[in-house]
Write a structure and sequence with these properties.
With 322 residues, this protein is an alpha/beta fold. Helices cover 33% and strands 23% of the residues. Strands 1-7-6-4-5 form a 5-stranded mixed β-sheet, with helices on both faces. It has a 4-stranded mixed β-sheet with strand order 8-13-12-11, sandwiched between helices. Strand 4 (74-78), helix 4 and strand 5 (103-107) form a beta-alpha-beta unit. The protein binds oxa(dethia)-CoA. Oxa(dethia)-CoA binds next to helix 2, helix 6 and helix 7.
Length: 322
């Protein structure tokens, strides 16, 4: 089975935080952040909720797709930082945009979430369970950052991206994905401690934040991106030259450039916007997809590769024809 993209959208908090702004509240510098990551600024919420961002991105995508919200059979939000555990962010979107006929749920595959969600939608299409879906990646990671930890808090940003997709016959679609829970400690965020009548609650327990072994994730990323991109190309019997655009998870410029070098992909086929948004986890690929769509650099029939990696550990790539 395969799909076509009908429309895309994105949304970010108004508040922009530059590297210099961060250097006023922690021991860091514009030079360090730029050199090690390529990030120059990011959007950090000063009021918008996760729900506001995902709903706005969804509204833009549905409008651009030119469909009625009632036509949606499926809404999936990839996220690890929603406002509520229940209802899901997807149910909130359903209510806000009036998509009364959709089945709605969230998935958490960290920064690979948008890839996983597209593959789930493709499975729904294959099983005849849906025809039109809204797939969103949205995060408010600033909610779970340790703002005294300069090694993580300078990297991430808040935002949401969305795509309306529709089942399509005879279109190219290949995927490769994987997970490795054995290396889960490399990027970890533990929820609050359990509180129930049978547990002695440790009142002095510290607040939980996201923590990351940056170097380990870096080593994992530079290996896994080329591996899963090569796998999807091999499945399709194509080479890098046959692909028009590669949309990689926006974590670090050095990671993207390393993948480009290993796969011999010219940099003009790999758009980047991490300088503007930082790492927005599950939102990074759909935000980039929307940017590329709005710029009209892609046309019907073009082949694109999407590739994500992140906590879990998780990874995945999709090769699709537009
Ligand atoms: O979507 C999830 C995927 N996550 C990623 O892709 C992250 C992958 N990892 C990375 O991108 C890089 O490992 C980082 C950007 C996180 C770190 O870069 P690095 O080159 O691996 O730096 P490092 O951790 O080895 O730190 C080098 C130095 C240390 O100081 P000492 O020990 O050499 O004195 C750090 O304490 O840089 C220091 N440092 C900072 N200095 C200024 C760490 N963070 C900062 C900072 N500003 N923000």
């Amino acid at each position: 089975m395969a799909m076509t993209i009908l429309g895309t959208g994105s949304s970010f908090p108004e508040n922009t935080v530059t590297n210099d702004d961060l250097s006023k509240i922690m021991d860091t510098s514009d030079e360090w952040i730029r050199e090690r990551t390529g990030i120059e600024r990011r959007h950090i919420t000063s009021g918008e909720d996760h729900s506001d961002l995902v709903c706005k991105a969804a509204e833009h995508a549905v409008k651009q797709a030119g469909i009625q919200p009632e036509e949606l059979d499926l809404i999936i939000v990839a996220t690890l930082s929603g406002d509520y555990s229940v209802p899901s962010a997807a149910c909130i979107v359903q209510d806000r945009i009036g998509a009364a006929n959709a089945v709605c749920f969230d998935v958490n595959a960290a920064c690979s979430g948008f890839i996983y969600a597209l593959n789930i939608a493709n499975g729904y299409f294959s099983a005849g369970m849906a025809e039109t879906a809204l797939i969103i990646g949205g995060e408010v990671l600033s909610r779970i950052m340790d703002w005294t930890d300069r090694s993580t808090s300078v990297l991430f940003g808040d935002g949401a991206g969305a795509a309306v997709i529709r089942k399509a016959e005879n279109k190219l679609y290949e995927t490769s994905q994987g997970s490795d829970g054995n290396r889960g400690n490399a990027l970890i965020y533990k929820r609050e401690q359990i509180r129930n009548p049978y547990i002695q609650v440790k009142e002095d327990e510290e607040e939980n934040h996201l923590s990351m072994d940056g170097q380990m994730v870096y080593r994992f990323a530079v290996k896994v991106i080329p591996k899963c991109i090569e796998e999807v190309l091999e499945k399709a019997g194509l080479t890098v030259d046959d692909v028009d655009c590669f949309l990689l998870h926006q974590a670090n410029r050095r990671i993207v450039e390393s993948a480009a070098k290993r796969l011999h992909i010219p940099l003009d086929k790999i758009p980047m916007n991490l300088q503007e948004f930082g790492n927005t986890s599950a939102a990074s690929i759909p935000i980039l997809l929307d940017e590329v769509y709005q710029s009209k650099r892609l046309k019907k029939g073009d082949k694109i590769v999407l590739c994500g990696f992140g906590g879990g550990l998780t990874w995945g790539a999709i090769l699709m024809e537009l």
